Amino acid sequence: MKFFTLSLCLFITHIHLAQEREYMVTKNKDTIYGSIKRSFNLFDKENIGFKIEDATGKKTKIEISEVKSLKLYNGADGDSYIVTMYDTWYLKRIVEGEIEVFEMLSTPLFYVSKNGSELEFIDMGMPFARKKAHAQLRAYIKDDPELLEEFDSMQGTEKNILYIIKKYNSLKEYKVN
User: Fold this and answer.
1) Given its phi and psi angles, is residue 22 left (phi above 0), alpha (psi -120 to 50 degrees) or beta?
2) Percentage of the chain modeled with pLDDT above 70
3) Which fold has domain 22-71?
């Protein structure tokens, strides 16, 4: 009986891990599966790279100009979804939902997208930019007057903006279900 229980647990774990496969989506919309590792350059922190290893063990450097998105599990950034911008920067999604928030991997700059729209820079967390960040986010939540009123009573800090976006997403999710 113990052997059966152990075998069942190992089988379930194997199935779970097999379903969580890392992948890269190219600009041509091809999906390439493999183990993806992040590389660092200690002398140039903005020079972030990724390598993908296929089933045969062949490692290939991922050219940022070819990448649309990456899905990673247990990487340097934990489980993460990463997109590229201007063929230059990698951005990690830190809030998922109707309004998504992305943070650059190399520096703490933030971008926002609503319903899959083009990413827009938001002055979140920037010194002396709270009013501007507040005004930028208002456009994203204007369809929820109650939440907008709550947000107007707050400062445009990074913490408050993330709180409001997460609340907006959870309210929209609740209204859909």
Assistant:
1) beta
2) 80
3) SH3 type barrels. (2.30.30)
